[in-house]
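Researcher: Structure for this, please.
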Amino acid sequence: MEILAGTFKTHKERGEWAELCFMAKAAGKGLRVLKPYGDSSSYDIGVEREDRILRVQIKSTNRTRRGTGYYALHLHGWNEEVYAKGSIDFFAIYLIPIDAWYILPFEEVEGKLSLHLNPGGRSEKHAKYREAWDLLRG
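Model: Predicted structure, token format:
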């Protein structure tokens, strides 16, 4: 998927678009998705799983790789505080330039303000979470 750097006027626009991309991809994989009404929920998208709803926070970047070869993302909310335990179940991270999703359990990045991903790199710590849509199935 080709997205030009100037496509989005604000981070909010890019975030809303990434949420739509997540919902389309998840639905295409047979998952049932829900969108909370308004902006006051601690999560962006709900995914139905058996008798509960998983709370998913969507993060994205359209920046090309930095000098270190990593994609860097913020894992905090608009108020620059880390997400509280119990507020979300998963982060879904979209690397727009390479059209890749990472589905990370909250516990994997709990307490972190940022995350660095190095797709295909020798030291890719989070490789097992790339396109790990089955984690949302249970």
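Researcher: Any notable elements?
Model: The mean pLDDT is 87. The two ends are 28 Å apart (CA to CA).
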